[in-house]
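Incident log, support desk, overnight shift.

02:14 A customer reports that sequence design results differ from what the structure should imply. Their input is reproduced verbatim below. On-call engineer (initials T.W.) acknowledged and began investigating.
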């Protein structure tokens, strides 16, 4: 993996993350206008970075978040705004990651979803992920219930999470377990937790031996000030590049596909995915028990959550609180 040039090659994925300016959207017409701005930014970025294979836009970059019109501004996947971005993907030959915040729910009685889409360089939607952990109490989006991994440019396996999802190690691990070599975190994250968000993204890259790409909004939308700091992180937790706070900043890096596959096959002491399911294999071999350690989970929390989620919920409430403390007026 490297930075410093605008190219990529047959074994490296050129990826860009953007501090997209926090949009103020009040109508469907403005959503369409913003989609055209995104399409233009895709074309211009590809022009300046000819090695670009995939470009990542933050959560809320298309529709913004209007506290009074969030339901009205929700879209379906087959909407005109999505078609504009899909066409930009196809015409520029790049993968694009962005969100529908929100996506109209199939059940009209339920709130929209917060949905991430991955569009291929042929303009096809190859992944649709619905945010598992909406940022309650402030976000009204209906939660999704599964993670997904797809093949991206040059065969790299990628998965997507959205904003507050990234505060839960379980989601990172689930994506890594499904084979994700690149975990993309799209977010509309505002102050104050800038340092915590950065720490989590770097730590999870290391813990899961995965590339991580974070794209965040930047600037003020009339409600929040978004801190930017989009970044690209290597599988060893080192930051390859990080933006500042300014809207419009773009960070670009080349991610080696063979290198991440090599370290996952060759690393020993820091191969966290392998070691988690082969605990203590040095000792078990010496004891004559097994050559490859212990696979059974030692974690009571996960065992109980699967077996009895209601009781697990009660135990968590005993150390936190039993009822939500606040519902926003939106």
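02:41 Re-run completed on a clean worker. Output:
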């Amino acid at each position: 993996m490297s930075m410093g040039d605008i190219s990529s090659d047959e074994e490296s994925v050129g990826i860009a993350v953007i501090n997209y300016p926090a949009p103020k959207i009040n109508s469907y017409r403005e959503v369409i206008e913003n989609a055209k701005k995104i399409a233009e930014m895709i074309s211009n970025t590809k022009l300046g970075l000819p090695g670009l294979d995939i470009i990542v836009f933050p959560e809320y970059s298309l529709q913004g978040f209007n506290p009074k019109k969030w339901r009205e501004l929700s879209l379906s996947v087959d909407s005109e705004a999505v078609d504009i971005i899909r066409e930009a993907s196809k015409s520029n030959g790049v993968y694009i990651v962005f969100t529908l915040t929100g996506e109209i729910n199939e059940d009209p009685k339920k709130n929209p979803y917060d949905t991430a889409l991955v569009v291929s360089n042929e303009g096809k939607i190859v992944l649709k992920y619905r945010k598992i952990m909406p940022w309650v109490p402030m976000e009204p989006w209906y939660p999704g219930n599964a993670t997904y991994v797809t093949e991206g440019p040059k065969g790299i396996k990628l998965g997507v999470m959205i904003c507050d999802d990234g505060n839960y190690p379980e989601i990172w691990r689930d994506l890594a377990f499904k084979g994700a070599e690149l975990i993309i975190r799209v977010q509309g994250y505002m102050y104050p937790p800038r340092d915590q968000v950065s720490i989590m993204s770097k730590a999870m890259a290391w813990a899961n031996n995965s590339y991580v790409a974070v794209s965040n909004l930047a600037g003020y939308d009339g409600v929040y000030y978004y801190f930017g700091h989009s970044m690209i992180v290597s599988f060893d937790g080192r930051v390859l590049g990080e933006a500042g706070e300014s809207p419009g900043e773009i960070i670009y890096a080349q991610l080696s596909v063979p290198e991440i596959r090599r370290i996952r096959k060759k690393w020993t002491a820091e191969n966290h995915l392998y070691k988690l399911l082969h605990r203590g294999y040095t000792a078990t071999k010496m004891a004559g028990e097994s050559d490859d350690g212990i696979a059974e989970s030692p974690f009571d929390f996960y065992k109980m959550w699967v077996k009895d989620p209601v009781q697990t919920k009660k135990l968590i409430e005993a150390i936190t609180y039993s009822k939500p403390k606040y519902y926003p007026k939106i």
